[in-house]
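Input record (one chain):
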Amino acid sequence: MAVVRSAIAMLSYTAAPVVAISWAVSGLRRLS
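The corresponding structure, as predicted from the sequence alone:
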């Protein structure tokens, strides 16, 4: 099931930056 593993890896790699950006935006909103 290498395809499933690669798909999960792609999802995690693409979701990590989105989560980091959303977390940073929420942090900036709290500061302002």
